[in-house]
Automatic annotation (TrEMBL):
It comes from Heracleum sosnowskyi. The keyword Nucleus applies. This is Myb-related transcription factor. Residues 9-61, 62-116 form the HTH myb-type domain. The keyword Zinc does not apply. It comes from the Eukaryota. The lineage of its organism: Eukaryota, Viridiplantae, Streptophyta, Embryophyta, Tracheophyta. One of its GO terms (molecular function) is DNA binding.
Length: 249
DNA sequence: AACCGCCGCAACCGCATTTTT
DNA sequence: GAAAAATGCGGTTGCGGCGGT
């Protein structure tokens, strides 16, 4: 495939956007939408490539965007999502309304990574001290895992010193048989069983659970990418509810 | 006041993926 | 089904602001 020529080769402008350019882009998108980013700059009279316009719009000019002031809750969500998804910034952004992949990526690299690094070194030195005083006190293979009613394990990252206020859960992706797609026909007993063992409070009955599952499946959660989104939603929904195994920590 | 180094963020680049022809 | 075009994504860079010396 032949690569399209990039901006500089076509004499287009690069670098920071001026307020005038922003205004042109905003009013053009408001009036005409952004069905075709490639054609947009020409139509709007901007000396930018389509890619640059799209980036400017999605990361900065979009009306529904929240900028700056990442809350503690958002920070914790980012950490939890990062444990689940790795560097899939756009997938993380989809779980944080008003935040962009670029912003999350920047926040991760500039703030959170640093905090976690500090936390980790503090924790490691504490562990070292414990090991020195009582070598049998810690088994690294099991110490930070908790079994959930036969549904595999969650890894548990304890509270950071000061800044990060809660335990972080991350399901280990050993999908139990009960959740495997091949066992998800329309069997009510399967859903009953899940409900009995893992009931999120706002799910009223087997049909609701089934619908919820099917919605997630539509979003390609099960059968792709180890069903991480499905697991994520399940754990998020179940957290904090009575009987949820995580809340005993 | 001038210089320097660090940090945060916006924007770019190149590759991957999806959509269109 | 193949090729081309468009879009999306994640890694990286460069610049401006700020604090310290």
């Amino acid at each position: 495939m032949v690569r399209a020529p990039c901006c500089d080769k076509m004499g287009l402008k690069k670098g920071p956007w001026t307020p005038e350019e922003d205004q042109i882009l905003i009013s053009h998108v408001q009036q005409n939408g952004h069905a075709n980013w490639r054609a947009l700059p020409k139509q709007a009279g901007l000396l930018r490539c389509g890619k640059s316009c799209r980036l400017r719009w999605t990361n900065y000019l979009r009306p529904d965007i929240k900028r700056g002031n990442i809350s503690k809750e958002e920070e914790e969500t980012i950490i939890r999502l990062h444990e689940l998804l790795g560097n899939r910034w756009s997938a993380m952004a989809a779980k944080l309304p008003g935040r962009t992949d670029n912003e999350i990526k920047n926040v991760w690299h500039t703030h959170i990574k640093k905090k976690l690094k500090n936390y980790q070194s503090t924790r490691d030195s504490k562990r070292q001290k414990i090991r020195e005083s009582d070598p049998q006190s810690e088994n690294p293979n099991i110490s930070n895992r908790k079994e959930i009613n036969g549904f595999g394990y969650m890894s548990i990252s304890p509270q950071s010193s000061g800044e990060l206020s809660s335990v972080t859960y991350s399901p280990v992706m050993t999908t139990p048989d009960i959740f495997k797609p091949e066992n998800f026909n329309s069997s009510k007993s399967t859903f009953s069983e899940i409900r009995k063992r893992f009931l999120p409070g706002d799910i009223q009955g087997d049909d609701d659970l089934k619908t919820w599952f099917e919605m997630d499946q539509e979003l390609r959660c099960v059968g792709s990418d180890d069903g991480k989104d499905f697991w994520y939603n399940l754990f998020i929904k179940a957290q904090g509810l009575p009987g949820f195994p995580g809340d005993v920590i």
